[in-house]
Amino acid sequence: MKRSKLLIGILIIFLSASSIFAQTEPLKCNSQVQFHLVNGYSLSYLTMFSSSSGIRLKVDLGLFGSSSDSEHTQRYYNDPSVNSSTDVQKYKEDQSSNSQFINVTVNYHWLAELTKDLKLYLGAGPLIRLTRYSSENTQDRSATSYYSASKSNNKNTNSSFGLGVQGVVGIECSVTQKLSLLAEFNLDCTYSWDHRSYSSQSQPVVLSRTESTYDGNSWNYALNNLKIGIAYNF
Description:
The chain is mostly beta strands. It has one helix and nine strands; from the N terminus they run αβββββββββ.
């Protein structure tokens, strides 16, 4: 019920906006290449049918990765009344993770001129999303008089394919005849097919291994951060 109300509300907003923006007199069609560089990277191509409407193809890309290597030493002090020896155990840990995503959207755009150099634009259209995330953790521990040497490795992988719709609300500010500044919010609603896998391997004395997988689907809603970029008109 909540999803239906949300979709109906978005539809009413864009239909109302289209009737308002359609009152603007048609002008010569033009095109625009857009680059969003703050709070996400995207490349867009917008072609205008008139001064108030057009179609935009947008591709969002995300690549993230991190890794760390650490070593530390832990000392165990035994009860002097029993044994005054000290055990030293060395740890070595390697961690890495990376994620990628790509969104492809086709938005129908409505534009309204607020002032000579300032325009409001709204958009809506289908969305295709692909995401992937993986991480790995490896730990080695040296042997002591109380503990044997051990090694463990954990891997985690998530992937998702989603279909849905995207709503756009933004402002365009003209700097020159050819260049403009852009700021916009994106509201995404997707239905995704998800796959997850996890494996764990350890070897304190004998090798042990655990594996698990998950396949499912989910509804996802996201209001993205304000994206800022530039546009070139031609």
